[in-house]
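Shall we go through a protein fold together, starting from nothing but its sequence? Label the sequence line and the structure token line clearly, so we can match residues to local backbone shapes. Would you write everything just below, so we can both look at the same thing?
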Amino acid sequence: MLVSWFKLNPFIAFLVVSVIAGLLLQIPAVKLLASIQKGLGDTLGSLAVIICLGAMLGKLVAVSGAAQKIASVLVNAVGIKYIQWALVATGFIIGIPLFYGIGFVLMVPLIFSVVYKYKIPAVFIGLPMLASLSVTHGFLPPHPSPAALVVQFNANMGITLLYGLIIAIPTIILAGPVFAQALKRIPSNPLATFRPEDIPADQLPGAFMSFGIALLPVILLMGTALLPAMFNLSADAAKWLTLIGDPSVVMLITLGVASYFLGTAQGRSMSQLNTIYTDAVKDVALILLIIGGSGAFKQVLVDSGVDKQIGHYLQQLPLDPLVLGWLIAAIIRASLGSATVAGLTAAGIVAPLIIQTHANPNLMVLAIGAGSLAFSHVNDSGFWLFKEYFNLSMKDTFRSWSAMESLIAVIGLGGVMLLKTFMS
């Protein structure tokens, strides 16, 4: 209500609700402040590094032209006939290191350049690419919401990423290119303001370097998760692998590689790189505060003991815990508009249920991530970005953007339940 009705900043809303809830739940004032500080610190302690380094990497990938290079290579490789699939693959690859807002603003000019050049309907060609961005934003670490859920549920970042990729690919195909077949007749005249200003081809980094750096976090996280299962490692090797596979270290290694190959090796000074990184951290500062606020709220629920009561009540409902997590996130998403806030709020409510029902924490991250993308409408900034950039009517925005986001949520849940069936 504070976010939706009173337009309060989500971070402030979380703090206000944490204080009010703590007092109503009869936590002593001194202990209440300690709970809020502990929740903030515990949540941000392991996430601040990942999110800040991820933002720096994404900004560098965009500014250096690596994202543009990935797109041009894929489009040139498949030709005009399969250009939609090339854009989907581009959105998926670029969406892994880039935060959603940055990815959207970066990808839309690329979409429009294809629209202007080949006279293809804008929604038909653009929506599948944005579906890729939505899925990576909601399902895949190291994006803020799934990364925060991994920490809150004590899940494994590498395994969650692996499961997420298994679910993400069919979800993107169905909610993207397949669904877009029904949208060819939607009239869209993209604003001329958004005609792209491309970096000259001779100034772009190499293809191998661009793909390699964008995918390096995925390769390291998945590799360090799978190697112990594939090989009998010595104790020392396992310790080193654990260190290298830590998400913070993965992002630090990737940023170091990117800083050289996309930075200094391309003629950028350390001063220029530092400016890029400073701007990147400014972009995600509010996200960090919102995540910290959600941690404070969760800690108040834990310290008051009400989390166990909530878990007990939820356990009585005739729903699978994964479905319940998805449903709570979907309801909050429809109410608030923010996928990140929806996922983090649902996590605080569902966390005790994982312990009581022994639900798979990796799958719960994905179930809540899918639910947090459900029905984007007028209270979601993504809805308005899509409407205004593509110059659509409200009706056409609902039948394209809102329908696509809801399809991702439903198909994502279906994928989670299928994975659970195969694992049980």
Remarks:
- The chain has a mean pLDDT of 86.
- The two ends are 39 Å apart (CA to CA).
- The chain has one domain: 10-423.
